Amino acid sequence: MEVAIEPSWKEKLKDEFEKPYFGELAAFVKDEYRSATVYPSPKFLFRAFELTPFEKVKVVILGQDPYHGKGQANGLCFAVNDGEKLPPSLQNIFKEIESDLGQPIVNRSGDLSRWATQGVLLLNATLTVRAATPGSHQNKGWEQFTDAVIRTLSEEREHLVFILWGNYARAKGASIDRTKHLVIESPHPSPFSAYNGFFGSKPFSKTNEYLRTSGEELIDWVS
């Protein structure tokens, strides 16, 4: 089937798009957009892939669902549209960046596209959600698709950093080849768990140190 996704990803995932589950998923999502309010807007559905082509990926951060409030979801996990109030998890991510790197964040926009264009794939496990109904598009096929994304990156690339926050992300990242990639795990940055090991976990400096040893350009997390 024809899927409007960035060309390098289209090539890498072409077999996935032909599988029966993906046809059923596409039909479900189209119907939901037609009959309900769904986030993010269709133009942002594959934004993470658009901003971070397959060969440009250096880091993968895994989220679960898009935000389900008006004006928030923009196709990048943990991110919100520019000008939106920062959600608690993102506030905690910014706090950890400042503590970890010992410098203030200059750009406090919640958009995070500035990370994506440097090679940070901000991937939600489920790419759509019905307004005000968290989890409403889980178990419809998105998880199988994003599992394929992770598997393809693990198998076909080397020296990537996978950042897995919380038990859900850890379980989803179980198939990553840790002999080829760095996997950083910690509790989730949400207010419910951030003080149980997210704060002080230093994922951003660990990421840059690994990229440095791999001869890659570092991620500018602050500006």
How would you spell out the order of helices and strands? HHHEHEHHEEHEHEH
How many extended strands?
6
Provide the residue-averaged pLDDT: 97
Q: Uncertain runs with pLDDT below 50, 5 residues or more? A: none
What's the helical proportion of residues? 25-40%
Q: From the alpha-carbon coordinates, what is the Rg to the nearest angstrom?
A: 17 Å
- Global structural class: alpha/beta
Please identify the oligomeric state: single chain
How far apart, in Å, are the first and last alpha carbons?
39 Å
Write out the strand line-up for the largest beta sheet, numbering strands in chain order: 3-2-5-6
What coarse outline follows from CA principal-axis ratios?
globular
Number of helices: 9
Provide the β-strand percentage band.
5-15%
Largest sheet: 4 strands, parallel
Note down, in words, how this protein is organized:
The protein is an alpha/beta fold. The protein is built from nine helices and six strands. Helix 8 links the parallel strand 5 (161-165) and strand 6 (182-186). The radius of gyration is 17 Å and the shape is globular.
Structure in a nutshell:
By secondary structure, the protein is α/β, with parallel strands linked by helices. The protein is built from 9 helices and 6 strands.
Task: From the structure above, extract its key features.
single chain, 223 residues, alpha/beta, 4-stranded parallel beta sheet, two-stranded antiparallel sheet
